[in-house]
Structure formats: structure tokens, C-alpha cells
Write a structure and sequence with these properties.
Blueprint: H1 4-16, E1 27-32, E2 37-43, E3 48-54, H2 58-63, H3 71-87, E4 94-96, H4 105-115
Parallel strand pairs: 1-4
Antiparallel strand pairs: 1-2, 2-3
Helix pairs in contact: 3-4
Length: 120
């Protein structure tokens, strides 16, 4: 019997075969644990992370008390990540949902990134 995380990993590997990020258009990966939401903009050609942000960072935790893996928290994290990407001159991304369904936290991050002006 496969666990839920094993199934997610299988979907993630299948989707990752088709997605690749570059320095002009990085792959924005999302990972959500039970407590936190993590975002990374990755250049797969060079194998480097261009920008990252999560609900686990001290600056974010100090400003936001309460639920860290909620839709509201995901919107805030998405807005901060969009700001960091814009600082680096990145306007387009490849959205990698990490094998998660496109709803809840994942959808909130994606919609916030779109509303901030990033194109997928």
C-alpha cells in the first residue's frame, strides 16, 4: 500500500520530467509541510536556487503569529516571493506544484504570484 506522500512523490517525478527552469524563467517549486510553506525559484540548468522564502523565516514569523500553513499565510508568502523575484528582474516563472493538488495553499500562492505580475 502506498502512502499519500509516496503517491505525491510519484506525481512530482512525472511532472518534473516536463518542467525545467532557467535563469530567465526559473522553476518555482512549492513544498508544504504540516506547519510551513516553502517556495524556491530554481535554475535547473545551473543547479542553483535564485530566491527562496518560507513561513519558517524569522522575519516572517515575527510579523505573523498564528497559522503558518493556511491559505492566508500562503498568500503572504507568495507576495513576498514575488517581491524577491521582481528585485532580481524575473518576470516569468515555471510553476511547479510539487505533486500537490492545485487547491488551497498551492492555489493561493499561484493566484498571489499572478496578481503580483508574474507570468507562468
Amino acid at each position: 500500500m502506498s502512502s499519500r506522500n509516496q503517491l505525491r512523490k510519484r506525481v512530482q517525478r512525472r511532472v518534473r520530467r516536463k518542467l525545467a527552469g532557467s535563469s530567465e524563467r526559473p522553476r518555482l517549486n512549492i513544498y508544504r509541510s504540516l506547519q510551513h510553506v516553502y517556495l524556491q525559484a530554481i535554475d535547473d540548468r545551473k543547479g542553483v536556487t535564485l530566491a527562496a522564502f518560507s513561513t519558517n523565516e524569522k522575519s516572517w514569523r515575527a510579523a505573523h503569529r498564528g497559522a503558518r500553513n493556511s491559505v492566508a499565510a500562503a498568500s503572504d508568502v507568495g507576495a513576498e516571493m514575488a517581491r524577491r523575484l521582481k528585485e532580481r528582474g524575473i518576470e516569468q516563472i515555471v510553476f511547479d506544484r510539487g505533486g500537490y493538488r492545485y487547491h488551497g495553499v498551492v492555489k493561493a500562492v499561484a493566484e498571489t504570484l499572478r496578481s503580483a505580475g508574474l507570468r507562468f
